[in-house]
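Retro notes
What went well: the complex prediction finally ran end to end.
Inputs used:
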Amino acid sequence: MTISSAVEAIQGLRAAVAGAAAGDDEDVRRQCASPAFAECEIARVPNEDAIAHVAVRLAGPLPLSDLEAAFGPARWLPARPEGGGSRSMIFDETLPAEGSAGATLLAEVEQDGSVRRLVVRRDVL
Amino acid sequence: MPSSRKREPPLQRHRRQPSHLQAEGRDGAPASAGRLPGRAGVLRLQQALGNAGVARLLAGPGGANVFATLIQRQGPAVEEAPPGAEAALLDADEIADARRYYTSQPWLYTPAIIAQLRGALGLNPEGGVDEALVLAVAEFQATEGAGDPALKIDGKAGPRTLPRIFREGLNVEETGQEFGEEVQTEVIDEWASLETAEARRDRLVELVNERLEAAGVPPVTPAFDPNENNAGSFDFPTWRMLIGRGRLGAESISEADARDIADTVYHEARHTQQWFRMAQLRAGQGLSAAAITAELGIPARIAALARADPLARGSMDAVIAQGWWDSVYGSGSAHREAVLAELDRAATARRNAVAAHEANPTPATEAALERANERFQRAFAAYQNLPEENDAWATGPLAAAGITSGSPPPTPPVLSGEAGEPAGSPPPPGGPAHGKLPEDNLPGGD
């Protein structure tokens, strides 16, 4: 997997998640089938059809710097209450603007600085 | 926003460690600490970790704990002070210090908040920040706050003490116990019929979501944690409750493990409530949904719900949520990150020391293990003293109190012609054939 193909797959997934209508996730599933992703889990808002987020495991680890080059600077979020293991970073430039729908990118960063898991979260503001 | 505030009596509680911190043996069981500490060491450990944590730490690979008789508490940690003995809790300097604590933060401890605090403690609401208030808070900390984790007796109703005085949502005792009782009857007692780890996980989360929704908190989405041994963790960026498949996939579950699951899921759900209250706090302070999404890192839909139902400025709920926000996102955030990082490092150091001592036990590895254990105790105590953790650790055991047994023993398949089966009994109409497990008897062609 090349960096550019992985970034392209993430971009495609973001576009599909941002544009997904409730109950229609065909495009999201198609993007999930990319060889850049080893696993892809679609989560829905509880008691609704709408997609909440898509969690993906990458086919191979990516350096955080390469993701930042593509999606802008990433910012650490506070550690999860339980702490431990990976930590989440958010790519602020992927947050949607007020009054629009978007797909926010979050990365789970391992202690060695690599990224193996991503979350593409559907945010409507 | 429903608010069922009430004061609760002190409780018997146990503690657990976060799953990722538990020392693991090669067989996946909690590893032996290698060297068992002396009686004083055990009591110090007990204060830091509680009986359950100490039992895990000291248990050998086979689960034997030769110090079991030592780790029973030596009588109640704090006895209820007799009437007229309150002054002994704090000296004059400590009382003056506590009064300054309130008066130096007038934006937080407004006259209305002080009046509510006094009223909750049985004082005349109009007395202001006087010695009686400080001593009443100290008495509460010494008696109702003497559980696990214990509150520091300093007369200051800060971010750890206020949520115990003004209980709301998941830390109301009845709410926790009812959840535990439902986990018992609907998950543990139905362990076999639920069949899969996914079904058990979803039922657990469904039950805790009922409590969250009753408290006006958006429900969480169930998901499996990549860490199979994780009994539960709240992931605020995705608003998910993560549980390890390994915790729910066995064919039976012991009472101890059932308590741990109920405690942990409820503890983590309390974090869900905290995070939503923080979002509501920031909404009440004027932030937009977009700003709350960006600042807290939570989903926009959660921020929008908080924006639609903000905490009123100057309310007790807002003062309590401010304590959590200060710890996670505000002036305490660097301290919190340092505490969590040290906890991870100390847990790793302890695991390494255990492994080194088990591989080649010498006086040097024994001493190193003791140092690693002491370091971990300090790190764990600091972690548990974070305001949001202190609150969640006091909340989880409310659910564990509703667990009364492990799952019923799995029913072995009864094969045709075996002893015990009535001779000649026909298969039930439409049911599985004799000698077959239900899952082996599903309709369908080859």
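What we learned: The longest strand of chain A covers residues 51-63.
What to try next: split runs per interface for comparison.
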